[in-house]
Amino acid sequence: MIVVDHPLVHVHVTIIRDQDTGVDQFRHHLTQLARLLAFPVLQDLACEAVTVSTPMAETTGCRLAYEPILVPVLRAGLGLVDGFRDLIPGSIVSHLGMYRDHRTLKPIRYYSNFPENRQNHPFVLLDPMLATGGSAVDALNFLKEEGARQIRLVSIIAAPEGVRQVETLHPDVPVYTAALDDHLDDRGYIVPGLGDAGDRQFGTL
Ligand code: PRP
Ligand code: URA
């Protein structure tokens, strides 16, 4: 697991944790966090050399060999899309619909949409909350069934239980997070966490 340790990350995490932060501000600061995490998460993207002519001379530069496929887990993962997407020319967004049954805490999959010829692209699974890890593990199983070979998982707040689960069942997948929290409560919520990330983004509290 990589905890992205940067003062600006700490500042934005503090704001979204605050129960008095409203919907608009929550979304804004979540987007800033996505943007900050995109740098370490994407630092090993492969470049293809291209020639470019400046007004002064010809020189070589980089074009992405394979655009990343961003996979937000609905609903909460939507809040991480723009921060990544704004930085990546030609990025692809493949939505994955999944929710956690409130009684069993087991993930229920209800939607997916992936492009053809995806095997060589890096996949970036986006979900701000990694709690029990059930949703992330199920999403990773699914991405691998769909042919993904290179996946990274991006969360904002992670619980030790969820990190352990993902690292045990998907040791090949690097897990990035902005904060590693203390524990889960008996309803599977992360403590201190930020509450329900979907509700806080979409005002459905
Ligand atoms: C949240 C969150 C993760 C999941 C994490 O989604 O966005 O997908 O819970 O919990 P887990 O690690 O225990 O599986 P939720 O089920 O609340 O759906 P929503 O985004 O539609 O509100
Ligand atoms: N999902 C959330 O949105 N928050 C938690 O604390 C746990 C799961």
From TrEMBL:
BP terms from Gene Ontology = UMP salvage; uracil salvage
Under the heading InterPro entries, the entry gives: PRTase-like (IPR029057), PRTase_dom (IPR000836), UPRT (IPR005765), UPRTase/APRTase (IPR050054)
Pathway named in the protein's UniProt entry: Pyrimidine metabolism; UMP biosynthesis via salvage pathway; UMP from uracil: step 1/1
Methyltransferase recorded as keyword: no
Q: Which reaction does it catalyse?
A: UMP + diphosphate = 5-phospho-alpha-D-ribose 1-diphosphate + uracil
- What residue stretches are annotated with the Phosphoribosyltransferase domain? 3-204
CDD domains in the record: PRTases_typeI
- Gene3D superfamilies found in the cross-reference section: 3.40.50.2020
GO CC list: cytoplasm
- Give the highest taxon in the source lineage: Bacteria
Any one Pfam family match given in the protein's UniProt record, by short name:
UPRTase
Requisite cofactors:
Mg(2+)
- A GO molecular-function descriptor: GTP binding
Q: Which UniProt keywords apply?
A: Allosteric enzyme, Glycosyltransferase, GTP-binding, Magnesium, Nucleotide-binding, Transferase
EC number(s) recorded for this UniProt protein: 2.4.2.9
What's this protein's function? Catalyzes the conversion of uracil and 5-phospho-alpha-D-ribose 1-diphosphate (PRPP) to UMP and diphosphate.
Homology family: Belongs to the UPRTase family.
**Name of the protein:** Uracil phosphoribosyltransferase
Q: In which organism is this protein found?
A: Sulfobacillus acidophilus
